Amino acid sequence: MKRPLVAENRFAAFALLISTICLSLGKALAADPLPSPSPQQLAWQRHEFIAFAHFGMNTFTDREWGEGNEDPKLFNPTDFDARQWAAVLKDSGVKLLILTAKHHDGFCLWPSQFTEHCVKNSPWRGGKGDVVREVVDALREKQIRVGLYLSPWDRNQPTYGDSPKYNEHFRNQLRELLTHYGPIDEVWFDGACGEGPNGKKQEYDWPGYYALIRQLQPNALIAISGPDIRWVGNESGAAREDESSVVKRGDQLAWHPAECDVSIRPGWFYHQSEDSKVKSLASLADIYFKSVGRNSVLLLNIPPDRRGRIAEADVTRLKELRAFLDQIYATDYIRSATITVPSQSDATHGENQLNDGDLGTYWMPAAGQTTAQVEFDLGQPRTFNVARIQENIALGERVQAYHVEVLADSKWRTVTAGRVIGQKQLRRFPAVTAREVRLVIDQACAPPAISEFGLHFND
Asked: What are phi and psi of 101, to 5 degrees?
């Protein structure tokens, strides 16, 4: 969904800032404790692939943004099946779903006691239905985590623009969602804001919203207008090269990882006219490499249709994407490689932990060493075009510059290089065939802690 009050130049400046922070403040980072994720942020970043479900009044009016004056009777999915959503998401590898509990039109997908503009006044389930309840229950049956989007902008609510009154109304609705549906893992806000019926722009009480979430759901992460997860700055699903999870807040550095949102269709809500416009597999694969493969979490919007089911065209593409990713990860030439380190490693964090498949273990060079290299003998010449590199981000982002080399014609040749590693880098390059490969850490603000290194082929 578009965020109308955010200027693009703001994110150009932000991109420059985060791409240079670790390098420009290397000395300070070495002296002070490194920013690192909370347990909740760590778990969230390791999800890598999560989903959005834009579903609501706009689904039935064939619009992207509603006016707030729509008749609740228009909301009437003919074959609502949250279990179908959950099954599709599970098969696709999605770890968390964020549901649009309320969009800008103010229509609530749960029977809120604070508005009549909600499912209790729709014909669906005879006015007794609760979309949020059915979705939450279906997700938990499949061990998929739950996120909720509650739009601060409400074009139906008459108190909108009377800031104190509306803020209390919004907190009331937030309280309903955070007390009636069990553990919530992510609360998603955008910054959309307009004028109310009184002609005044609403001033959101962000500190009050955050305090209520911390009180009722202390383990929930707050995104995107929030302190825990930030918007990457576009809606194309692409992070920047060397996207860092460390940002500057005032005079301090903080852990604030990026989320890349993009829709599987041109629009955010379902439109039958877009059934033939679902993104191609090639497009989704490229998005995956530019989000998950650039130290960010991919938030892919999959909008249910007017039946209340994920449409067949979307299901087909998601199956293709899952098969594509499975094919890439199925072969990892490092799994059977012989690993050597020219210089001595920390005895408790040896090089054999680079290919054990466990992100909690890691290789670390000798104490105090911030440059190092690891060599891999693949046993025979192998052809590959993707290098996968992962830090143990529980210890922060340490690497500031690195490159990968192959031995060809008795000479080491660089095939890819970067600055930030973080949760995951999927570095693509023209296919090479080599038996010997090495990962070189050129610079780090503390002894690097590399969890995994892999070599794959993207056909």
From this structure: -65, -35
315 and 379 fall within a common domain: no
> How remote is the C-alpha of 131 from its chain's centroid?
23
Structural contact between residues 432 and 458, judged by C-beta atoms closer than 8 angstroms: no
First to last CA, the chain: 33
**CATH code, domain with 347:** 2.60.120.260
pLDDT category at 367 given cuts 50, 70, 90 is: confident
Q: How confident is the model at residue 366 (pLDDT cuts 50, 70, 90)?
A: confident
Q: Which residue has the tokens 């249910």?
A: 304
Is position 92 within any domain?
yes
Angle, CA of 396, 401 and 402, to the nearest 5°: 105
> Number of folded domains in the chain?
2
Are 358 and 257 in the same domain? no
CB-hemisphere CA count at 13 Å for 159? 13
What is the pTM (predicted TM-score) of this model? 0.93
Based on the fold, state whether residues 342 and 321 are members of the same structural domain. Answer: no
Q: Do 310 and 397 share a domain, yes or no?
A: no
For residues 64 and 104, give the distance between their C-alpha atoms in angstroms, rounded to a whole number: 10
Does any domain span residue 353? yes
Three-class SS state of 437: strand
Residue 114 tokens, joined:
């604070």
For the chain, the maximum distance between any two Cα atoms, rounded to a whole number of angstroms, is 75
CA distances from 35 to 94, 117, 425 (A): 27, 43, 19
pLDDT band at 42 (very low <50, low <70, confident <90, very high): very high
* Residue the block writes with tokens 């890439």: 328
368 and 449 assigned to the same domain: yes
224 preceded by a cis bond (ω within 30 of 0): yes
3-class SS of residue 240: coil
Strand spans (E) along 138-245:
145-150, 186-189, 221-224, 230-231
If DSSP codes are grouped into helix, strand and coil, which group holds residue 445? coil
In a domain, 422, yes or no: yes
Based on the domain organization, do 399 and 289 belong to the same domain? no
Domain that holds residue 394: 338-456
pLDDT given for residue 346 in this prediction: 60
